[in-house]
Amino acid sequence: MSFAEDLKTELAGKDPHAKHCTLAELAGMFCYGGALVKDADGAVSLTFSTEKEIIAKKCFTFLKKSFNMNIVAEEFALTGRRGRGYAVRVAGERDALRCLEEMGFRRPDVPRSEGRIALADVSLRFPERLCCVRSFVRAAFLMGGAMNDPDKSYHYEITVPSASVGEFLTQALGQFDCEPKLWERRGSTAVYLKDSERIADALTVMGATAARVRFEDIRVVRMRRGEVQRTVNCEVSNLAKTTRAANKQIEAIGEIERVIGLANLPEELREMAQLRMDFPEASLQELGERSVPPVGRSGVNHRLQKLLGIAEGLRVKEGG
Questions:
Q1: Band of the pLDDT at 319, cuts 50, 70, 90?
Q2: CA dihedral 77, 81, 83, 88 (to 10 degrees)
Q3: Residues 190 and 152 in one domain
Q4: Same domain, 57 and 105
């Protein structure tokens, strides 16, 4: 499975110990797949729909654990395409409204006739406890989250069903200094993170311990790979600079040989000119080590600069 699939599987297996956290996670799920429905017979129910069986099972389990009510799970065919969908339903207006109230939703007006109210558009009370905020973020990622393979790029996002849910989720992640951003594209809105440290923090917020460990392992490997690449690039750049400088020096020495001859140079410059001609790829340090007696890098550079100056003077004279 992909990193994102493994992450969602891990999150789906998380079970909060406290009821208030379970209710916060249910609220996150119902923001995406929940609706208050009135059917043709006037019966009111609270429904949750998803295409993921594992999420439907989690919703059903959490409702059963939190409420002593008649809760029904159903399977249905998807309209216009292959596959199955899953629904969890709380029957009865009183029980439906009680569930919404305990999850933190503002009590919506029940439709007067047949219809539905999507809970993405219903105001939700922000959790007072940080543990409940974590549960809400976990549910939101399960419902609308996506994450790139961190070995290729860093990108974490949660698509939101409404602007109000986007603001709610931005505030939730902001409680943990994740500094999320919002983007809108082709009619869709998402909360996203691109900084690797912020993504690691978000994984911790959701309680994805295994995913966080795997993410950090990949991040370390990428950092080391980047350090190696930067070192190689630096060495290549230095080698290119050395080669350009050596070619310029060899050209200058050739000019001196042609005009006045190397034999007319002072001994230390004659020796350095010959060494540069014999070892065109050698570094300043290597040239210095081959000198008799050995010379430091600054001494080698000083002599080569003198040779360049002499060659330049000869060109000026010839030009004049």
A1: low
A2: -40
A3: yes
A4: yes
